Amino acid sequence: MKRETGRLERPGCSIHYEVTGEGPALVFAHGLGGNHMSWWQQVGHFAPRFRCITFSHRGFWPSSAIPGGPEPDDYAGDPAALVDHLGIESFVLIAQSMGGWTAVEYAQLRTGKLRGIVMAATGGSIARDKLGDPAALAAWEAASAATKQALTAAGGHQATGLRMLAEQPAMALLYQHVDEANAGLAKEALRARMNGMRRRPPEDLAAAGCPILLIANEEDVVMPPFASAAIARAVPGARAAMISRAGHSAYFERPAEFNALVDGFLAGL
């Protein structure tokens, strides 16, 4: 299988990227607990039919470190420059959690290159109060806080969840190893900057001008499971799907289900 790695020089940093396979382009944008390696179960599945481009966001290993941490409003410019560098004229952007900030803000650039977007367990820079009924949000936040406490006590990670920790301990440990590659990153400061960007109405996602799939996870304690459907209702051409018995990182925990949903989405483009 054809595979290449490279670095793209950007203002203030360099971006590590990998290209695996040949065919229509898929660009993967990882979450706060990941890097380019997070997508190994997707690259292995899709690369026989697609050109899979993974990259590490600025400030995330092995892209260059940034003193004080990255500014998430700089994220969208990096994949924009990367697809230009690789000569890609159209692609599908697959974004998970933090990668949703990249996706929503890239959509605002209106490059005309997007064939589709997959938003997995994320609303990106869409305002929190637009993600569902306030009472439902409050109830979910209270339940999620209790689950996060239990995860911390068990030595788990909030992005994996209690089920992965119990049923797939090796996968939960691998997730933590990937996350720890970014040990020098000030994640709470970055999270605060991301939260400060949450001002957009969901209708702004329509700027993408392409079909959109929003994937929710039934046992997510980071992103309300009902938020994906709320966003989809506000955006023409968007639809939502749910993965059952999965925490925040279903692409990692339930790759067969996640990949099947993405396969169905790609087949319809």
Please tally the β strands and state the result.
8
Q: Main beta sheet, described? A: 8 strands, mixed
Q: Report the CATH C-level class.
A: Alpha Beta
Extract low-pLDDT stretches: none
> Which bin fits the share of residues in helices?
25-40%
Helix-strand pattern: EEEHEHEHEHHHHEHEHH
Q: Please, what is the average pLDDT?
A: 96
Q: Structural class of the helix and strand makeup?
A: alpha/beta
CATH topology: Rossmann fold
Number of domains: 1
**Order of the strands making up the biggest sheet:** 1-2-4-3-5-6-7-8
Supply the key terms.
269 residues; alpha/beta; Rossmann fold; eight-stranded mixed beta sheet; 10 helices; 19% strand
Summarize the structure in words.
The protein is α/β, with parallel strands linked by helices. It has one domain: Rossmann fold (3-Layer(aba) Sandwich), CATH 3.40.50. Helix content is 37%, strand content 19%. The chain has 10 helices and 8 strands. It has an 8-stranded mixed beta sheet with strand order 1-2-4-3-5-6-7-8, sandwiched between helices. Helix 1 links the parallel strand 3 and strand 4. The chain is globular, with a radius of gyration of 17 Å.
